[in-house]
Structure formats: C-alpha cells, structure tokens
Amino acid sequence: MVKNIFLMALCLWSAQVFSQDTWSLQQCIDYAMDNNIQIKQSELDLESADVDLFGSKMRSLPDLNANASYTASKGRSVDPFTNTIVDQEIQSQNGGVNTSIPVFNGFQIRYSIKRDEQSVVASNYDLQATKNDVILNVVTFYTNILFNKELLETARLRLETTQSQENQTDRQVELGALPIANLLQIRQQLANDELEVIRAENNLELSLLQLKQALQIPADVKFSIETPELPDPETNALVENSTQIYMYALQNQPVIKAAMARTESANYAVGVAKSNYYPSLNIVGGLSTSYSSVAAEQLGPEFSYFDQLDFNQRQYIGLQLNIPIFNRFQVRNNVQQAIILKKRTNYQLTDTKNQLQQTIEQAYLDVKSAAKAYSALENSLEAAQLSFENAEQRLQLGATNAVEYTQIKNDFEGVKSDLIRAKYDYIFKLKVLDFYQGKPLNF
Questions:
Q1: Mean pLDDT, rounded, for 246-269
Q2: pTM, full prediction
Q3: CATH at residue 343
Q4: pLDDT score, position 86
Q5: pLDDT value at position 298?
Q6: What confidence tens digit (pLDDT) does each residue in 95-142 have?
Q7: Mean predicted confidence (pLDDT) in 232-255
Q8: What confidence category does residue 301 fall into, taking pLDDT thresholds of 50, 70 and 90?
Q9: How far apart are CA 418 and CA 252, in angstroms?
Q10: Is the pLDDT of residue 326 over 80?
Q11: Nearest 5 degrees, angle CA 366-CA 370-CA 372?
C-alpha cells in the first residue's frame, strides 16, 4: 500500500515537473542544478570534508569510556575481593569509567583542524566548479538547439521557394516558354530540399535529446525550449585582451581557488606529520569497582552486592607522557610523504593555472576567428543574394537554364546556412569568454 502511494506521488511529481513543455535557458540550468549527479557527488564530497573537520575539532575534547566484565569460575582460583586462593565457584564483576584529556601532542590537533578547514574550502570550490561545468554544458546544448531550429526554418523556407519555383516553371513549360529539362532540374532540386528538411528535423531532434540527457529527462517526455530573440552579434564585441581576462579568471575561477586551498591543506598536512616527532602529554583519570560472590561468606553478610561496589571503589588521576624514541622510521616516512604531497599540490596548482591561461587564450582566439568568419559571410551573403535574384530573373526570361540557376541557388542557400552556423558559433564562443569573465550565461 505504501509502495503504491509512493509510486503515485512520484508520477504526480513527474507530471508537475514536465507539465511545462517550453523551457527557458534559466529553467534548464535550475533543473540541472537540482538533479545533476555530478553536482550531487560534489555535494557529498563537501559533506565528507565537513565531517572530517568536525572530527578534527572534537579531538581536543576529553574522551570518556566505560567498561564492565563478568566472570564465573570453578575450582582453585584467586578470589578477586580478598586475593586468597579458594576452591569453590566464584562469580565476580568488575566495572569502571576512564577518561583522557589531551594536553600537548606536538600541535597535531591544531594542524589537523587547519588542514581539514582548507579541505572544506577546496570542496566548496570544487562544487562551484562542477556547477559551472554543468551550466556551460547546458548552454552548449541549448545553443545547439537554437542553431538547429534556425537551420530547420531556413530549410523549410528554401523548400517553399523551390516549390513555388516548380509551379512557375511548370506553367512556363506548358506554355512552351521553357524546355522540360528546366522542370526536371527544379524537381530534382525540390527532392534535395525535402531531404534537407528531413535532415534538419533529425538534427533538431538529436540536439533536443542531447539536452534531455544532460538534464536527465526521459527521452519520451514532451520537451521544447524557448527561442529568444537573438540580435545579430557585433563583430567588435571584444574589449579586453586575453591577458586581462586571464588575470580576472585567476582571481575568481573556482578551479584555481580549489587548487590553492589544496596547497594550503598540504602545507598543514606536513605539520600534522611532523607533530609525531614531539612528546605527547595527556591527563588520565578513572573510577573502578568490583564484586565477588564469596566475599560475603568470608567477611560476613554485611558485604552485600552494593556494599562491595562501594567498598571496592578505586579512583585515580595522573599524567601520561609518551616520548617517541624509535619507531622504525615511520614518522620520517610520513613526513616525507607529506612533503611530496605538498610539492605535488604546488605542481597541480601551477598546471591548473597554465591550463586556464591556455584555455582562455584559445577561447579568445576562437572568438576573434569566429567574428572574422561571421563578418566575411555577411558580406558573402549580400553578393550571393544579388546573384540569386539575378539568376531568378534570368530563368523567368529564359536567359539561363535550370542547371545554372540551381547551382547559383544552392550556393546562395549554402552561404545562408554557413552564416547561421557562424552566427551561433560566434555567440557560443562569446558566451565561453563571458564565463571566464564572470558574466551571466544567458541570452
């Protein structure tokens, strides 16, 4: 019954979540933030780091432990109450509590807390970095859908144009103004345009599926995205140079901050390892008592169970000093390993900085190249459109054949498709650069 109720609730929740078929970019990002597995795993890493830090802090507190034992014996044995040898059945009990308070342990607790605090900082930045990667991934798939939607729209318009041209050519052939070869060529182009529409539809479906999979939404769920009005991008959008962007990212990117925190954590880990070279001092104390079944027989009935527990009480308090002298070089090896880890984290930090710089330099160059390609295709489109319009007029007047017209039309449509591709390529690469500048990734 409970299971059925749970399944019904899950179904209702799913219906509510996906009832809104058209999603904005922000809605996709928000959904990914709540459901992405990599983000949840990073959150667990942060929780684990918090637990480790809590454990390190609690090591400075006293410990308290209780112990109890029960023994039944027959034959000759030592009475635990009188310490005399008896030859009979004895039932005895022992119990107590003890505590230990750390006074000095070579600053091990202090270094452990500092180390684990930096681990928590690193895990926090790792979580932010994971979220940034997920956001960038969602933006990539979202942009790809917008690109394929515009390509599909262009393919459909191209098909409508060819259908209109086919009708016009058919009438001219019937009137004898154009040869039948022109109509056959137009029909062949019509078939090609129909195939391009099918390909564009398939590409759009594939890009939608990729976004669904990135969001972990079932493939059969009805899903579409909003199509924002994207103005033609400015080809002179770059203001800062790659060095300025890198310097900003160096101070703000979570991957750098996480690597720096791990370096600090490794520094404190060396202190933790070295603390074992020093003596440790603890305050110890305890309380214990015991009971023997033969005590009443030997010493009188006044030594009952609770009387014995009261009579046999023993309290102690003292100092416990531990001085390391020789430990088979274990401390030395641990210190060396900690130093190696420290060097490794320094190298990792340097490598992370280098990778970030190289990524930004490449992204900056990609934006410049995409801007040039987009600007060149804008100019090329104007020329291709004029050539197409001229060929269309010449075809109507019978001054050119359908083969030449089709070639010019295909060239024109190819430039249009290339311009759309260049537009979205440029927009996306600008968004990547915005990401490293800390700007919001939205349209």
A1: 95
A2: 0.83
A3: 1.20.1600.10
A4: 75
A5: 66
A6: 999 999 999 998 999 999 999 999 999 999 999 999 999 999 999 999
A7: 84
A8: low
A9: 36
A10: yes
A11: 120
User: Within 13 A of 272's CA, how many CA atoms are on the CB side?
Assistant: 20
Whether 171 is covered by a domain: the verdict is: yes
Sheet with 280-292, side-by-side order of all strands: 63-73, 90-104, 280-292, 314-322
Q: How far is residue 68's CA from residue 81's CA, in Å, rounded to a whole number?
A: 16
CA distance 369 to 130: 28
Spell out a b/e string for 194-221, using b for 16 or more CB atoms within 10 Å of the CB, else e: eebbeebeebbeebbeebbebbebeeee
Segment 58-76, tens digit of pLDDT? 999 999 999 999 888 887 7
Residue with token string 């991957």: 255
CB 115 within 8 A of CB 269: yes
User: For residue 26, is it within any domain?
Assistant: no
What's the mean pLDDT in 329-350?
Answer: 96
Question: Would 295 be classed as within a structural domain?
Answer: no
Residue 104: φ, ψ to 5°: -150, 130
Is residue 164 situated within a structural domain? yes
Joined tokens for residue 428: 């996306």
DSSP-derived secondary structure for 386-406: HHHHHHHHHHHTTSS-HHHHH
Domain that holds residue 172: 105-278+327-436
Number of domains making up the chain = 1
- CA-closest candidate to residue 31, choices 47, 11, 14: 14
Contact between 422 and 374 under an 8 Å Cβ cutoff? The reply is yes
